[in-house]
Write a structure and sequence with these properties.
Blueprint: H1 6-29, H2 47-51, H3 56-89, H4 95-103, H5 110-124, H6 130-153, H7 161-182, H8 187-190, H9 198-208, H10 213-235, H11 238-243
């Protein structure tokens, strides 16, 4: 097995630093005692973490985002299983067209989807409702769940069907949940007061405020994400979750 040379290692180190730098800056700025965005140098404070408690809308938006992501991802995975098995097992007229239809949300800008959903939900009475949010998020996360489920279903031995599909289902759900939780471009069009997700709440807050509150909220989300990844790695294995391999590398 070949080893990476010094140049490759330097490139990888620079790439990792480039990816992590914005996250670290956000986390450090969250500890500033000042009332404006600044990098703390001599003083550190939890002022803006305590300030989150004075804005319950951030907390409620966080739990709403969790429920929205979990529900929409679960429904997307449930829909992707029969679709993936049909596409992988059978050859029928319109098979490629059906696959393209399921994957089409990836090709449509989320701004266009947001405007379309806003008009559609308003006409059928679902405008600004949580049900409308769930339906819209199912549409945009279904391609991610279907793609990973389909990858697990291709060449699937029917005798090992359940065991072979499990990694694809878990990976598809996780990827769909991440995309749902992080979605803001489309959601900002269809969310209303009382149904705002955390990304939308943060977006609306920074339009009128320049204090570090959003950085403290972001730092908390980053911390929760890291803890969740550690827990998943301990319980399931990140390599198995993301790559579809078992712990012994098979």
């Amino acid at each position: 097995m070949s080893r990476n040379g010094p140049l490759a290692l330097c490139y990888h180190a620079l790439f990792v630093a480039f990816m992590l730098a914005p996250i670290l800056v956000v986390c450090f700025v969250a500890f500033t005692p000042e009332g404006y965005l600044s990098f703390p140098t001599d003083r550190w404070s939890l002022r803006w973490f305590y300030a989150i408690g004075r804005y319950p809308e951030f907390v409620s938006a966080f739990w709403r985002s969790l429920w929205l992501g979990a529900l929409s991802s679960a429904v997307a995975v449930a829909l992707s299983v029969p679709a993936a098995l049909a596409i992988a097992r059978h050859r029928f007229p319109g098979r490629e067209a059906m696959t393209t239809l399921f994957m089409s949300p990836l090709m449509i800008p989320h701004v266009v989807l947001g405007i379309a959903f806003l008009r559609f939900f308003t006409q059928i009475g679902l405008g600004g409702t949580f049900v409308g949010l769930v339906l819209a998020h199912i549409v945009i996360v279904l391609p991610f769940a279907l793609r990973l489920t389909l990858a697990s279903a291709v060449g699937l031995d029917r005798a090992l069907e359940h065991a072979a599909l499990s990694p694809g289902l878990v990976s598809g759900w996780a990827l769909a949940f991440i995309n749902s939780f992080d979605e803001v471009t489309m959601t900002v069009f269809i969310a209303a007061p009382g149904t705002e997700t955390l990304p939308v709440r943060m977006f609306l807050y920074i339009q009128d405020n320049i204090d570090p509150l959003v950085t403290s909220v972001s730092a908390c989300v980053i911390a929760v994400t890291v803890l969740a990844l550690v827990a998943l790695d301990r319980a399931y294995g990140l390599e198995r979750l993301l790559v579809g391999r078992s712990g012994d590398g098979r």
